[in-house]
Every structure is written in structure tokens, then in C-alpha cells.
Amino acid sequence: MRIVQMTLDDELVEAVDKVVEDLKTTRSSFTRNALREALQRYHARRLEEQHRKGYERRPVAKDEFSVWEKEQDWGDE
């Protein structure tokens, strides 16, 4: 692991300290988890953006998925 120095607002540190006490963890552990979750959200947003752009470049054709309609089983019939 690497030691990283950060500058944070006093209010943010106080809020984090309350949470880590409640979670019985450390600032470092809490921050690592928060950064991992932020990175996951970032990557998900990037993939969603790529997906959206792909559909803008090549929109779904009117009957593109109609071939699968017969395969759908909704369980209520």
C-alpha cells in the first residue's frame, strides 16, 4: 500500500469520523471503500455513455427484436 496525503474540509473529516466510529472501522478503510465505489460508479457511467452513443450511431431497427417475441414466456398463460 501507498501512503497518500489529502486535504479535506473540517466538516467532511468530522462527518467521516462519526461514520467510521459507528462502523467500527478506520478513516483509511472507509476512504478506500468509498474510492472503490466511486471508481465503480465512474466506470458504469462510462459504459452507459458508450452504450448510449452506440445506439445514437446505430438506432434499434423497428423489427430488430420482433423475432424474439415468440420466445418470451411471461409465466401467466
Task: Explain what you see.
This protein is mainly α and 77 residues long. It has a domain at 15-57. It is built from two helices and no strands. The protein is elongated. The N and C termini lie far apart (57 Å). The mean pLDDT is 92.
Number of strands: 0
Which of globular, elongated, flat, extended, rod-shaped describes the shape?
A: elongated
Poorly predicted tracts of residues: none
- Rg over CA atoms, rounded to whole Å, is 23 Å
Give the ordered list of helices and strands: HH
Structural class estimated from helices and strands: mainly alpha
Please state roughly what percent of the residues sit in beta strands, choosing from under 5%, 5-15%, 15-25%, 25-35%, 35-45% or over 45%. under 5%
Question: Mean pLDDT, as a whole number?
Answer: 92
In short:
Helices cover 58% and strands 0% of the residues. With 77 residues, the chain is mainly alpha-helical.
Which tags fit this structure?
77 residues; mainly alpha; 2 helices
Topology:
Elements: H1 10-23, H2 27-57
